[in-house]
Write a structure and sequence with these properties.
7-stranded mixed beta sheet
Length: 272
């Protein structure tokens, strides 16, 4: 049974981010050359990979690999034969045969899941998967509220930040990715801030309801985590219990703003 894109939260997120970026890849990587290899770490439902493959005129010779720990989200039997999905955590060693093998490594809204595992080490491990001259592109949030955001959106940011810290991590990692890549010798490191508008704040009418629902649904596992945690949540029981419907209603009526950073850079050539 096919599921409508309106019911796929990750697809709504993908479409909204693509809309504000203007395209899927800002890194100036040549994806039209023969036998190109692309990795999407934290691929979710694989929509980014399939969208990228469909946009390339000669993608039949390319290899697209998507990895995630939640394999239940992987598409079943509907993808091209050159799109492959594998179970892989960003805090576990990558397959040795993948080292120095990819032309593009992409990861979006995943680094916060490192928990106590060092974010910098996770980025270093991703960089090791690139061929010399290959490109990495990462998209991560700043975890700050917009000045016009309502109380539910502020609770959203407060809860997400608390969960990351409670898991042993931090919320400031996005600001350091560029410098980490430079420390690895990467060249042409660039960064661009992109405004992700949610719900009624999104200028594209077809994305209003979809982004409102997907953002609210994304809170469900975080609310469940907060309820089961031994550490006290920063939200009161009432605020926590009704966060999902409050956020959904607020985004539909008022909208919200979630700033992201896109960071990309090029791995140095072997003889540079």
């Amino acid at each position: 049974m096919e599921v409508s894109d309106d019911l796929r939260p990750l697809t709504a997120q993908h479409d909204a981010i693509k809309e504000c970026m203007g395209r899927l890849v800002l890194a100036p990587v040549d994806l039209t050359k023969p036998d190109v290899r692309v990795l999407d770490s934290g691929t979710g439902d694989g929509h980014w990979l399939s969208d990228l493959a469909a946009s390339l005129p000669q993608s039949h010779s390319a290899t697209f690999i998507g990895t995630d720990i939640k394999t239940a989200n992987f598409p079943q039997g509907s993808e091209a034969s050159n799109i492959i999905f594998k179970s892989q955590s960003i805090i576990q060693p990558w397959p040795v045969e993948w080292h120095n093998s990819f032309d593009l490594v992409h990861q979006r809204l995943v680094l916060g899941a490192c928990g106590a595992f060092p974010h910098r080490e996770a980025v270093t491990n991703l960089a090791g998967l690139l061929k010399p001259g290959g490109w990495i592109q990462m998209i991560e949030p700043d975890q700050v509220s917009g000045v016009n955001d309502g109380p539910a959106m502020h609770d959203f940011i407060e809860l997400v930040s608390w969960v990351f810290v409670s898991m042993g991590g931090t919320v400031s990692y996005a600001a350091h990715i560029g410098e980490w890549l430079k420390d690895l010798g990467f060249t042409d490191v660039q960064e661009r801030g992109i405004p992700l508008f949610l719900g009624a704040a999104n200028p594209k009418k077809e994305l209003i309801a979809r982004t409102a629902l997907s953002t609210a649904k994304a809170m469900e596992p975080l609310v469940a985590y907060a309820k089961s945690s031994m550490n006290p949540s920063p939200l009161s029981i009432d605020r926590l219990e009704n966060l999902v419907p409050r956020l959904h209603e607020e985004l539909l009526s008022k909208g919200g703003y979630y700033p992201l950073r896109v960071i990309w850079g090029r791995k140095p050539l072997a003889d540079s």
